[in-house]
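Minutes, project check-in
Item: structure for the 265-residue chain
Input as provided by the requester:
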Amino acid sequence: MYKHYWAMGQSGKEGYQLNNSKEQVFFKKNYEYYAESKSHELGNDLSLLVDHLPRNGAYTALDIAAGTGFTSFRLSSIYRTVVALDTTIEMLEKAREMALKKNLNNVIFVIGKAEKIPFLDHTFDVVTCRRAAHHFPNKRAFLSEARRVLRPGGYLGFADMILPKLDTDASFNTLERIRDPTHVSAETQGFWEESLSEAGFKISYMQTLPERIGFEEWLSPVKADEDNGIKCKAFIESSDSLKKAISYDSGTFIKTRLVLTAISS
């Protein structure tokens, strides 16, 4: 039976005030795009992520920043129960609708933040977070919370964009913020390695996935003729260092994702 919860604040009377932020405005506007995104549904990073997680039908998993649910759905085929956590109710409502069409009966939908997960310590065997951490203001708090809700020896599965190695002034983050105001920062591979170790994780698998992507494909759901799209194009064209960092060529460039799994101590 499907459930849809509102994560309660400390008082128990008020939910988190999530829907007033620019993040909520952006994702509320564009949730249909994410539900139709073949990259989010079929991207190589999802297969790699799931392939390197443990197989145990008795396990319970938490998918942080689940969006419209593609990672949660994949996890539901190998784990007993999956909790899909997100800050945007429209995204979760769409995920719930999609899950019903797929006849999935083991996914629970919960409103909540990555930096303040509304579950008790040692609740989950597996925690995942895919294509979302660049939106988090406090990434170390996210890792700390992930470790808190994992049982000792539990697995974290992670995938997200990382900064290009040659991008010494983080121009790629500026570009991403022009496109999407909810983008906080992509980090380096080294940042994630160091932060995971500090949070009490041991990396068990790690791989980078460079992908050449077209400008308009990357820009979606923003349109090339919209204000943000025009500004993105102008920003790229004005920066030779950024072009070099992302290997910009004939309207395409390299975007790299980091995929890893780590074990909680």
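Outcome recorded: Residues 1-20 have pLDDT under 50 and may be disordered.
No further action items on this chain.
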